Amino acid sequence: MCNRFLARCCGTAVVLLVPLWLPAAEIFVATTGDDAGPGTRSAPLRTLAAARDAAREFVGRERVTVLVADGVYYLPEPLVFTPDDSGSEQFPVIYRSENEGGAALSGGTRLRLKWRPYRDGIMQATAPEADKVDQLFVGGVRQRMARYPNYDAHKKTDAYQGFAADAFSKQRAARWADPAGGYIHAMHRSRWGGYHYRITGKKPSGEVQYEGGWQNNRQMGMHEDFRMVENIFEELDAPGEWFHNAASHTLYYWPEPGVDLSEANIEVVRLSRLVDFQGSEAAPVRFITLQGFVVRHAARTFMQTNEPLLRSDWAIHRDGAFLLTGTEDVSIVDSEFDQVGGNAIFVNNYNRRTRVLGCHLHDVGASGVCFVGDPDAVRDPLFEYREKNDLATIDRTPGPKTNNYPAECEVADCLIHGVGRVERQPAGVQVAMASEITIRDTSIYDCDRAGINIGDGCWGGHLIERCDVFDTVLETHDHGSFNSWGRDRFWRSDRDVSQKAIDAEPSLPFLDAVKTTVIRDSRWRCDHGWDIDLDDGSSNYDIYNNLLLQGGLKLREGFRRRAWNNVAVNNGFHPHVWYNHSEDEVFANIFMAAHRGARMPSETAKGKRVDGNLFYSADPAVKNRFTQFGWDVHSVVGDPMFVDPAGGDFRVEPGSPALDVGFKNFPMDRFGVKKPSLKAIARTPVIPAVRIEERRGDRSRGPARRAAAASYWLGATLHDLFGEEYSAYGVRKEDGGVALAEAPSDCEAVRCGLRQNDLVQALNGVKVANTAGLLTTLAEIGDEPLVISVVRDQQTIKLTLPASHYIALESAGSAEALTHLPGQALRIKSVTANQRTLNEPLESLVDGRLTGGYGPVFANGTFSGAYKADLGATKPVTAIRSWSSNTNGNRGAQRVALYGSRSAMDPGWDLSDRERFTPLGTIDTTGLSSGAFNAAGLHAPKGRSLGEFRWILWSVSPVTPSGENTSFQELAVEARD
């Protein structure tokens, strides 16, 4: 081979004396070639493997170009490049399609079949050369395995474009003779990605047997509804579906209308990896460029996606149609990745200066481009969400432990769309355990999850600029067009432990996030989450000059995030669960909604600066929601005077009040891919019509509601979740729950093992979606032992409570039928009310007699009525009771919050004053049936008390939709002398 190629040069002597005068070596490849030939244009080689071997004679000594003619090159095995194939900076090696897009690399096989009818429009053919068929392509288009339910392209945001709760039910499976080899695809229970399972058969009882479910790092089980099955012969019932019987080598296919199978190009997939760079840090593959190719027919890899990534929500498979390991200065240029089954490009472990330029990646089964390093390069790595480091013993050395990770790599001027066609944990670009990754001038859309995902803080320094990312989070939930985590060595799910350590050592969050990640000059739109979502622990970010079209900006717990000069259209800023003294800054932005905090801010969790922003709203109070914490004291409300919002130009005119707070215009016409051929076909996001927020308040909480009395349990304040608070707690809206918003250290809840911010989701196996449900369930349980399902630090745990305060109820048709009468209780010295009562005098509440009628009732529509009793002296109170009459058939239910006070003097009526009033509990029987007379009481366990108090206060709320209050007849207190 050497002599053939040197003949095109000027002789060996010239090569040695004047190498720069020599022409570059050229090797030609064509589908009509012969690997035994010279590799010239007139006598090309037939395979790229032969061209690679021929090129080894010149690499490192002269520039080598392998020119590949148009055609489909079916690879019998992956094309492997080793260090022996390396070029150099002076003499690079280029493999180039002679015409961009003309040469296709295929990991499949073309089948030449004789079709015959089977039944009902289904055709069949014998395919002896096809052992296992993972994907079928007809006329270059990937077809669908036989599935249930059927695929519906119009259901773009439905799970799997068609789902059914009974996808693999016993009843459904009864139709299947042998489902072994089929697959179950199911969304994660909280829709944080998906799971995949291989069906292994059926049990004698008829239930489906399967294996798998390791594809998501947050193991919580599959969603009860969002499921589908495929590769089941009996489900072949729609055009475009197929099934391969491997035992009989028979392929069944229902062609789409208009398809002529006698003329159609039928291809199946064999390889999952087409090109494999096999180097290392010590011996890298260097200076090779692949340019202008189409890459097709790479197999799906979803059952191999089982490696967790550093406590992110992800698991991953280290493979792709192109796999790069141990490379330097390798480039993939002007290439198209068309309908590959797994990841398109996987940059694995040690790689430097990998470039993906001008490429079109579409309809990929998993992620577009992945940059993923070696966990052994991370100091103190953890993998599953619940794992925790001992912060006293972690390695304090900043940065990586080895160089075995991607760095200084780039994705630029690319078009990436149709991401996650098979797997539901994908990204257009995925970054994990990597440093200084640049993503610029790239359009990413139509993604089942995030457009760009950064899985950890290791080791930062990334740059995202001039990108256009939209139509994301189409099937998953609780993410953003940009999504990140930073669950690095400092981070623990029990965040109080992290907080204490960071208070003592503020540098901890930056041991891994050593370099600042920059997100700038980009356009984002996420209709099913946030435009930019910095989730758990994400630290050390600068975010500026971004146009946010729908979901706004979310910053969850992390440190040193600076966000300025961004425009959030029809939305705003979403601060979630910040650490104390996070040093976050949010300033000089244009927002169009009030901040939507979740479990914050507080006096300490308020960052360094949230101020100097412009709010575009008709509500002058929109900026005042958190001014008590020093936020937006210098912010302004006004019209930013956008240049052309309908046309997507959200620059501001001269004289705009935005300029007064420091906002500076940035270009609005430079987002996304620039390459002319890709820009011509790239979509752009829908520009929303500007909506001005007119009413005061947080729209995430729905219509304004009249404030009702607070609710308590075991002395802790209860709180229903609204809007984004579900995300803050890491739970689904459909599951709900009741948060312990305040739980003082001396309250009964804490003594029983509960904590502030616990989320209660079930009592004794009964789901409680909200406070009303919890209180009703407590009333029904009474003094039975309690087993509670609690979400704590996003982990569900079971707590068995010791004997504690409980609710006792009675209901009877007459006063005489009640077993607990006022005469058995302590006589109350006096009772007063905070507002005027109607009908009977207040004294009738303590006269020891139960009668019908309204009693001393608060007027309709009174939401803050309260009765207060003086016990005459401080006593250990063991029970607090109240009786009501079901007057008019709707006044017998009770909704009452109970307080105690030790004050020597009358404590007044300010129930928020915790120095005067102690919340004890809330009774709510509105969800239960009422008798003619009803008794309700809060009781301490035998031998204990609710606390020592002189004053007891009943704060009542209406019990009917029209605002009618309870007809209370008696109030009583039991106490020990």
Compile the SSE list and pairings:
Layout: H1 2-6, H2 12-17, E1 25-29, H3 48-55, E2 64-68, E3 71-74, E4 79-81, E5 93-97, E6 103-106, E7 108-111, E8 116-119, E9 122-126, E10 136-138, E11 141-142, E12 144-145, E13 147-148, H4 170-173, E14 183-188, E15 194-202, E16 208-212, E17 222-230, E18 241-245, E19 250-253, E20 266-269, E21 275-278, E22 285-286, E23 288-291, E24 293-296, E25 307-308, E26 315-316, E27 322-328, E28 331-333, E29 336-338, E30 345-352, E31 355-357, E32 360-364, E33 369-372, E34 406-412, E35 415-419, E36 427-432, E37 435-440, E38 443-447, E39 450-454, E40 463-465, E41 468-470, E42 480-484, H5 495-504, E43 517-520, E44 523-524, E45 530-534, E46 541-544, E47 547-548, E48 553-556, E49 561-564, E50 567-568, E51 573-576, E52 585-587, E53 590-591, E54 609-611, E55 614-615, E56 636-637, E57 642-644, E58 649-652, H6 657-660, H7 676-679, E59 712-713, E60 716-720, H8 725-729, E61 738-742, H9 748-751, E62 759-763, E63 766-767, H10 771-781, E64 786-792, E65 795-801, E66 806-812, E67 830-833, E68 837-839, E69 856-858, E70 865-885, ...
Parallel strand pairs: 1-2, 2-5, 3-6, 4-21, 5-23, 6-24, 12-18, 21-27, 22-27, 23-28, 24-29, 27-30, 28-31, 29-32, 30-33, 30-34, 31-34, 32-35, 33-36, 34-37, 35-38, 36-39, 37-40, 38-41, 39-42, 40-43, 41-44, 42-45, 43-46, 44-47, 45-48, 46-49, 47-50, 48-51, 49-52, 52-54, 53-55, 55-56
Antiparallel strand pairs: 7-20, 8-9, 9-19, 10-11, 10-20, 13-17, 14-15, 14-17, 15-16, 18-19, 25-26, 57-58, 59-60, 60-61, 61-62, 62-63, 62-64, 64-65, 66-73, 67-70, 68-69, 70-73, 70-74, 70-75, 71-72, 71-74
